[in-house]
# Entry
Amino acid sequence: MNSLEKNPTEDKKNQNEALKQPIPPPKTALIGLDREQLGEALLPLGVKPKQTRMRINQLWNAIYARGHTRFDQIQTISKELRAQLEEQCSIARPEIVTEQISNDGTRKWLLRLKSDLPGKPGPQVEMVYIPEHDRGTLCISSQVGCTLNCRFCHTGTMPLVRNLTAGEIVGQVMLARDRLGDWPENSGVKIEAEDKTGLPDARRMVTRLVFMGMGEPLYNFENVKSAAHVLNDDAGINLSSRRITLSTAGVVPQMERAGDEIKCMLAVSLHATNDKLRDELVPINRKYPLAELMQACRDYPGLSNTRRITFEYVMLDGINDSLEDAKALVQLLKGIPAKINLIPFNPWPNSPYECSNWAQIERFAQVINDAGYASPIRRPRGRDIMAACGQLKSESERISNRERKTILAGEAK
Ligand code: SAH
# Structure
């Protein structure tokens, strides 16, 4: 008797039937590919070499300038090619697990990426959109989890699962624009087939991008770089490098490359002005201490008074928030074109720190202001939905754990 005959239930039979079906080959993800790679992806579809350039341009416009989410929306290419693309390729964005909209317009998403193991759900990352009167900032993730273990950061308590692909990084931006109605077709702006530029600047919702979600972008350098180049393209999403800020905890050996090759703006998570404290708060400091970090900042390619480095400084009660710390901060940044971003600490369950009280943050800010740096406190946004970095993900895991326990309890009865 074979194992099939041993299965009496319908369910098991169906399962076995499903197992016998050939697994279709995975679709080629087109989002995140550069023009050359896109051309290569079109080869198996039988696109003639003479037509490749034209097809690349058509697809680039459809995907990145118009934000089409399905191949059958692309009117500029033949029905046959559309059908082939549908069958073999994908322009899917990451999946939304939850979407929260704050009463101040801030939005926060928990996203699920493609699964790495068949039958297992894909890993999750977070993304936040913060609208302001003259801009809209999208905060995206570069890694699932993190290796850095910064003591005040909730993502730091999660192990690194994997790097995001370039497609997943670009896909976050595209998904946010889908949800915000930030594509020409949705905004009522008509663009002609030849018009390459997409939505005019003044009508755009996502005008800035910051790598301040989960992960250390400089530990996923190649994918972040590829993603940035796709995002920069002025015939597509057209987000220039000046509008992209990469935030690093201080991966010194990669900083120069970021300036040279990605040409992005830089934010440095400083959080302490001496090695003793920074070693504890931002452990990568043990590898690349402050003197090296500050030198890398001074040497950052393209640095000028109009292209300043943003120094992030989380306000931790009784830890790094004294007026001496503020003075030391001013001293440390002397001679570097800098902006300072004071971030009120966002606590998470069992976090080892508390946020400084508001009066102390203001006193600290005053010292910074007196030294010539403008309005440095980051206003808390979306407090009603906002959790600390990494918190939304663990909240959902807690819920699913609870659900699992309920299911298990049910089964035990
Ligand atoms: N790894 C990168 C980017 C991700 S974190 C980096 O370290 O810069 C983005 C910013 O949020 C960093 O400045 C980080 O220090 C800060 N941050 C992390 N957890 C926080 C919390 N609980 N409260 C306030 N800021 C936090």
